[in-house]
Amino acid sequence: MKTTIQHIAKYEGQEVTIGAWLANKRSSGKIAFLQLRDGTGFMQAVVVKNDVDENVFKLAKTMNQESSMYITGTIVEDKRSPIGYEMQVKNIELIQEAVDYPITPKEHGTEFLMDHRHLWLRSRRQHAVMKIRNEIIRSTYEFFNARDFVKVDPPILTGASAEDTTELFHVEYFDEEAYLSQSGQLYMEAAAMALGKVFSFGPTFRAEKSKTRRHLIEFWMMEPEMAFVEHEESLQIQEQYVTHVVQSVLENCQTELKQLDRDISKLEKVKTPFPRITYGEAIKFLKEKGFTDIEWGDDFGAPHETAIAENYNQPVFITNWPKEIKAFYMQPHPDNPELVLCADLIAPEGYGEIIGGSERIHDYDLMKQRYEEHGLSGPAYEWYLELRKYGSVPHSGFGLGLERTVAWISGVEHVRETIPFPRLLNRLYP
Predict the structure, then answer these.
(1) Where is the Aminoacyl-transfer RNA synthetases class-II family profile domain (predicted)?
(2) CA 19 centroid distance within chain
(3) Do residues 57 and 144 share a domain?
């Protein structure tokens, strides 16, 4: 019977075959302990000299790290094992002997590991982070599909920018200029006018020369847009979504969270409703905390977001920002036109903003005024203005940065560990 490590609990007392790699090994006299991985998980296989052919035991003792094999044996319960089972080996069929595998079970520098990212992914820690990433993606689809959202794929090559074009990658598109998308939002608004509630999940790009632990050049965004949904309802959907994702990881990734030594008590506190603080209240709070350099109209940096987050044990919304530091498409606040109906969601424990969202302007004349104020003209933006001309409705949306969310939930320090092949300011390899 062929199976995988993920499903061995079904085969207790039975003989099975697993395709695996040798992650590590140790031996003690007449017993060899093989640490196996097969992509679905990790487990121990025990080879007893008296129970196997002489050549099998010799192979078990001499095989190198990351050699590949088919290994056959009986699955037995082992309460000391993280997965509760191990294999009593009967036979090993070597597929390929690995020689001089560069990432040995010792400490390596970050740059060395990044240069060998294609191999570093095989480690227990990186495996755990990628499994948590996968669970966040799986539960995202689950959440939005259950609420009748339609998945829509916006273009990656665009002729218009949702934000400031100075942070975009410019590319030559035959005889005209285009950009690598920094957000699918504008196109998702068009999709929402056709399909009601939509979401996208795909790569985005920022030509931002930042080296902080929170920034990547290429990252993945989850972006819903919702027709007939105003700001308050959008905030409720955001907190429900984040709570659902966290609970899904807690339920389905216990082994991975334990591997990462994640303090799950902090994740267990993530429940709706999330606390809220206005931009004005945040400025006052920061001044009281000694941030004398912050003034009304300033954007917040990492130290400011961390200070605000430390005052709460849950994600916190910062609402009602000045329109001058936010995007052109955000709906003005009804009580103060100098503010906009938007919110940033700040993750706990210093992980920073994971969601930015707003109610979008739906009035044609106001959007046209914004176009003039921001110097937006020409065919690249004309279609977006037209959305306000033919059956415009109140609508809202938001974007969640996947890698920052993975970093927060898994508890890793740097986002470079949260994407399979990170693109950083000075790294395009591997």
Answers:
(1) 130-430
(2) 29
(3) no
